[in-house]
Design goal:
Structural class: alpha+beta
Strand order of the largest sheet: 6-5-4-7-8
Helix content: 25-40%
Number of helices: 17
Strand content: 25-35%
Shape: globular
């Protein structure tokens, strides 16, 4: 927006600013700061406008303090409006997402009003673009979308301050009054909230909530990611206070009423740096040759009771968040790493699923019981793998037995239609300051698979249990009878799959998309590319084409796993849906009512959204460390593979360090390159040289942008 256009309605803006300020009074310098004025010409214009408003009796002046005097008529509002959530581009163009409309409503930047990203707004449709997309204008803010924002605090004058928000947080600068600085210093990264925004041609007013650290520091960068995603790292004092009162000792009556497994050979297998041990295992071979598997899960619901401060905070968070250098737990540390964690050589309360499984992997019988355990051994994945490879250990027999069962379950699952995604996961070696020194790929051991198969079996069993309860009651179809909280996964979008078929066709890979696509067809494609340079790319494309798994009481099965019934039961320390599932199972066992179908529908939407937010934050932290790692490699050359092609350029994934960046089309020299949609390639007009998906390419790191978390390459 030009300065001239900003000053055309200057009288109206000044009136709104002063009228809506505390005590209906503002210093002239603060008005100038709110308007982001910089030139002498603009200051003179401001002075003349204030003088004119004073002479008309609307404002009065006491030195440089400007005071509101009289009332100003409000504009009449149009009530024939459509409500939806607005998202804003860095340039200020808005897109309002309306539930019942096929297309978003595009809002030109001059018509977004005082809306901020994520706000619930009411819009008036003013017409259509040439492509038929509706255009509109924001008329009213129904509800602000965010409680807080993240940005860099800057001092602009003696008593004037602004905050430049992070790109993902907001699209416009904020001004800050001296009394709202709260200890922030110039170039600090801060968490802040919107105080008010009185006019679209003025800056919104903010208040600093907390200082995250010096802009650019590791701690500030990580805390910024949390802030951008509206995740608070600390717990409210009342929640900490409540958790501190939870006793560490188990009451004697709990031992008496539960199945006592303290003498059983029970063990855990977890990452080397884990402290929140959700699950433990026990295994036996029965006389009939069947396996008897026990999956023992921390009994979080014994401690986290409904509607307590602890429960409300856990529900609000929805999940623990696993960033590159830290965990933001769903439950306070006293519970997540202490009271609930299944630490070795300690008595712990559990909710256990016992399964008798045949040599073919079929579930023969099961029971779900409240138990008390005493884990005898804590393995890391690496330690467990060593025993599986032959190392002697007191638990060798148990580990080899559960390994044999896991191989049976794995083979059966893929035979019945599970999709086998195998995407490399980067891990960072950090120094004491959080600076990435090295990027390595997490090694996938069979010990990981072993735990996965046992957890999947337990999750599947508890979901099947609800179906059994309904059958015994004589009504297996009513949604109101024994409602349950499923983990569901819909079939992929055929249009997205058709897009993948188009992209892999120039690579000589045939992938036919049918109306009734089966997981086997997807597995066949993944098998075709296994071990090739495009394996990672095709896996990534397929993952993006998949529907997102969600939580819901409406069971449609889990397409990716190939299960008709599936729920999350095995991680209540770090996932709230598992807490809900535990409560439902206990309630039905006690023959009492609990959640309704409608309440579970609402909880499913909330938990699914919190999961998406956590995944975004985790990805942001990985991207941040990738950018930080390559910031020390400017000018260095790497081998890469083209992972995406657009009109703007090509994306390249580095082979050794698995960092993705972009080569802009303007940086590809020697010809004029245009995007060929049929080939999914950039092709030189004169030379015919092409840049295609899957091509190997040597690139040089040209630049990085820490704020935007972007990496720019140039071809070598």
């Amino acid at each position: 927006m030009s300065r001239n256009s900003r000053l055309t309605s200057l009288e109206e803006i000044i009136i709104d600013l002063v009228k809506n300020s505390q005590d209906k009074s503002l210093h002239k310098d603060i008005i100038a700061n709110a308007l982001a004025l910089s030139s002498n010409k603009e200051y003179k214009r401001l002075h003349k406008t204030i003088t004119r408003l004073v002479s008309r009796g609307i404002l009065k002046r006491q030195g440089d303090q400007i005071i509101f005097k009289s009332s100003v008529r409000k504009k009449k509002q149009d009530r024939s409006l459509i409500e939806g959530e607005i998202q804003l581009t860095p340039r200020g163009t808005g897109f309002v997402i309306v539930e019942n409309l096929d297309e978003d409503i595009m809002i030109p930047s001059q018509d977004t009003g005082v809306s901020l990203p994520g706000d619930l707004v009411q819009v008036k449709v003013t017409g259509n673009k040439r492509n038929g997309q509706p255009k509109g204008k924001v008329m009213e803010i129904t509800k602000r979308g965010k409680e807080f924002y993240v940005g860099t605090f800057k001092k602009t004058g003696e008593k004037t301050f602004i905050i430049e928000p992070d790109q993902k947080s907001a699209h416009i600068n904020f001004f800050v009054l001296e009394e709202s600085v709260n200890g922030a210093k110039s170039e600090d990264k801060v968490l802040f909230k919107l105080k008010k925004w009185t006019h679209p041609l003025a800056l919104p007013e903010a208040e600093v909530l907390s200082v995250l650290g010096k802009s650019g520091s590791n701690n500030a960068n990580i805390l910024s990611i949390l802030g951008e995603n509206e995740i608070r790292s600390d717990f409210p004092p009342e929640v900490e206070k409540f958790s501190d009162k939870i006793p560490l000792e188990i009451p004697e009556n709990e031992f008496e009423r539960r199945r006592d497994l303290r003498n059983e050979m029970i063990f855990t297998i977890d990452p080397v740096d884990a402290k929140d041990f959700d699950d433990a295992l026990s295994i036996k071979l029965l006389d009939n040759g069947n396996y008897y598997l026990g999956v023992h899960i921390a009994d979080v619901t014994h401690y986290v009771r409904p509607d307590t401060p602890l429960d409300k905070e856990a529900y609000s968070r929805g999940t623990s968040v696993y960033l590159v250098d830290r965990v933001i737990p769903m439950l306070p540390e006293r519970l997540s790493n202490g009271v609930c964690s299944l630490r070795p050589n300690e008595d712990k309360l559990c909710f256990s699923c016992f399964m008798e499984i045949s040599m073919e992997g079929k579930l023969i019988n099961y029971s779900i019981e409240e138990t008390v355990i005493h884990s005898k051994q804590r393995f890391t994945y690496e330690e467990a793998q060593e025993v599986l490879a032959g190392k002697e250990h007191a638990f060798k027999n148990e580990l080899k037995t559960v390994e044999a069962l896991a191989k049976i379950l794995l083979k059966k699952r893929f035979k019945e239609g599970a999709i086998d995604f195998d995407t490399p996961e980067p891990r960072f070696v950090l120094d004491s300051d959080g600076t990435p020194l090295e990027v390595v790929i997490k090694k996938r051991l069979f010990a990981h698979r072993l735990i996965e198969e046992c957890m999947l079996m337990a999750n599947k069993t508890v979901a099947t249990h609800i179906d059994d309860i309904r059958k015994k009651s004589g009504n297996k179809t009513s949604k109101d009878l024994f409602p349950f909280f499923y983990r569901i996964h819909d079939k992929p979008d055929p249009q997205k799959l058709a897009g993948i078929a188009e992209q892999v066709s120039p690579l000589g890979i045939q992938f036919e998309v049918h109306d009734k696509l089966t997981p086997k067809q997807i597995n066949d494609l993944l098998t075709k590319v296994k071990g090739t340079s495009v394996e990672e790319i095709v896996n990534g494309l397929m993952l993006r084409a998949m529907a997102k798994a969600e939580y819901s009481p409406a069971n449609i099965g889990h397409f990716g796993l190939g299960f008709a019934h599936y729920a999350h039961f095995t991680s209540p320390i770090r996932r709230y849906p598992d807490v809900i599932v535990h409560r439902l199972l206990k309630a039905y066992n006690a023959k009492i009512g609990t959640y309704t179908y409608e309440s579970l529908k609402k909880h499913g939407e909330h938990c699914s959204e919190r999961e998406r937010v956590a995944v975004d934050a985790e990805r942001d932290s990985i991207k941040l460390k990738q950018v930080e790692f390559l910031s020390k490699k400017i000018g260095q050359t790497f081998e890469g593979v083209i992972s995406g092609v657009t009109e703007r350029g090509v994306f390249v994934n580095l082979k050794d360090v698995h960092c993705e960046g972009m080569i802009r089309v303007s940086d590809i020299k020697g010809d004029y390159f245009v995007y060929n949609q049929n080939l999914h390639a950039l092709v030189g007009r004169s030379s015919g040289k092409s840049y295609r998906l899957g091509d190997d390419l040597k690139v040089k790191v040209q630049s990085v942008n820490m704020g935007k978390r972007q990496i720019d390459f140039v071809p070598v």
